[in-house]
Amino acid sequence: ANSIWAREMKEGFVNTAKSVHGAKVGELPKTYRPINTWIERETGRMIGSMFDPDQEIDPLTEAILVDTVLFKGSWTDKFDKSRTKTGMFRAIVGISKGTESYLYKEREANFMTKDGKVPVNNHGRTTIVRLDYGSREFCALFVLPFDSSVGAMDRAVNGLVTADFKKVLEDLQAHEIMLSIPRFQINWGPSSLVPALRALGVNAPFNTLGSFKPISDMPDFHMNSVVHRATMEVTEGGTVAAAATVSGFDRYSMPSEITFDRPFLMVILHVATGTPIFLSRINAPELL
């Protein structure tokens, strides 16, 4: 869902936002409370306050654009709760100085377990497992690096950033395995995305160079903040995930048993297009 909260914007942009993106368009409020309320409603209450509800919006802020995503998916083949077993998950708590290794702390976890044929592949020094949701329009990819080094996890992350997910899905093959994945919940933010965007070379939106002329005629109209918050919960039944972004203007041999008992990555994909809608790095999740 999308919403625009503004003092004044070009009518053409507003009409396009409404007709093409189904955006809600409203006046910029005095405080963040109405924006928080809208985000909470559109994310099924998974995302609470992005901001202090009583914080007044800066008088220099001309517009706030909000984007939310809510995903609810039940596994096509659900995990049997009676087979969920207790085990230990090695959560990252830091990095050892002078070495390329993480510091871990073992935490008790409930591992959802199943055996049978599962689509799996070794790709780029990682093991990838696919689990489908519902009618298989969407799926989850669980990505486990071959080892626990900092470099292995970084390579896995970078590999996903540049991955052709349709090719990744095509390369998966059904293998008889024993699969164990912890029940978990993760939360991130609210945090600024500006440093990450600038590191990726995205600078123009934050400069007063007329980048937003289709939106406003003000010569110094620019983006001054991008705040993101996300949450995901994975259980025997499926996955619930939500995210909100507020922009202010101003791949070894195939294992027979795969246990995700150390940091891994998870991607939720739209299967037909190979489009990722959530990409998560699970270092030290809240274990359910």
Automatic annotation (TrEMBL):
Which SUPFAM superfamilies does UniProt cross-reference here? Serpins
Serpin domain segment(s): 1-285
Q: Which domain of life is it from?
A: Eukaryota
Sorted alphabetically, the Gene Ontology cellular component annotations on this record are:
extracellular space
Which CDD domains does the UniProt record give?
A: serpin
Question: Can you provide one Gene Ontology molecular function annotated for this UniProt record?
Answer: serine-type endopeptidase inhibitor activity
Q: Which family does the UniProt entry place this protein in?
A: Belongs to the serpin family.
In its UniProt entry, what is this protein called?
Answer: Serpin domain-containing protein
Species per Swiss-Prot/TrEMBL record: Trieres chinensis
